[in-house]
Every structure is written in structure tokens, then in C-alpha cells.
Amino acid sequence: MRIRRAVKKVHNARLSVLLERNKSCRGQTMVEFALISMTFFLLTFAVIDFSWLMFSQMNIQDAVREAARYAAAGNHLPDPSTPGVTLSRTASITQILNQAATGTNCTPVISSAAGGVGSAGGPSDTVTIMANCAIPTLTTAIGSFFGTDNKYHFTVRSTFKNEPFSPTQTN
Q1: How far apart are CA 120 and CA 72, in angstroms?
Q2: Which residues contact 56 (CB under 8 A, 6 or more apart)?
Q3: Is the pLDDT of residue 122 over 80?
Q4: So what's the pLDDT on residue 137?
Q5: Comparing C-alpha atoms, which of 98, 19, 29, 100 is closest to residue 59?
Q6: Are 164 and 170 in contact (CB under 8 A)?
Q7: 108 pLDDT exceeds 60?
């Protein structure tokens, strides 16, 4: 019985020393957490932002490639507002690019070697499809690294040679 009381007294004495020491360390723990958590969250959001921006850039690259494959054959889309009429080649290429690049705001520029800017070229002509994009960042802290508008600006282009097709399909 005496041993139990002695052990209990020693245990209580150690516990009280630990509790006293713990009270003096509470502020230090909060300061350490504040410093570490800010760094942790900044790195976490940076990884998320850069992943989003790289995903968007790959999505636009794929959309430009898909529009180029469509354009190389000299195809036209039907005009949704007028049945029986087709859109011009440049309007068709732009619509294919916008459909493939969902959720982005890009400005397409189509140019051919023979016809210049705004021309999808004729048969066997070299054509370039370019998309100028500005993707907003998810966090303003990361966006401040990309300029004053918090957007990641990039250009994607694809150059190809048109297949032989009927010249009446040009425009």
C-alpha cells in the first residue's frame, strides 16, 4: 500500500511538472503552426494552380491539333442558323477549335501561306492555326507572378499542309 502511495505521489509530481511546462509552451506551438501552415498552404495552392495551368495548355494544344486535322481535309460545318448552308472554312475551323477547347477563352488566328491572315488556304496550301490564350489563375497569390492581370498568357500553334480537295470549297 505504501509503495502505491509513493508511486502515486511521484507520478502526480511528474504530471504537475509536465503540465506546468506545457502551459508555458502553448504560445510557441501556435506560432510554429502559423508559420508552417502558411508555407504549406502556399505550396499546396501553387501545385494546384500550376497543374490547372498545364492542364489548360495541354487542352488547348489538343484543340488546335483537332481543328488542324479537320481543316486539312477542306471540310465545312453546316450553318446552325440556316439549314442547307455551310459555314466558311475559317468559321468552321474556329467552331471546331472552340468546341474542343471547352471552358477556355482563346482568340484563334488562321492564316495560309498563299492567302495570308484570315484565309484557310486552298488545296496543298500551308496553313497555320494559332490560339492566343489567357487562363486565369485560381489564386491571386500565384497569379501575381504572371503579371498584373493574374492570367497565364500563352500561344499554341499548329502548321499543316492541306490535302488536295475541290477548290470550290475554299474560304
Answers
A1: 9
A2: 104, 133, 135, 152
A3: yes
A4: 87
A5: 100
A6: no
A7: yes
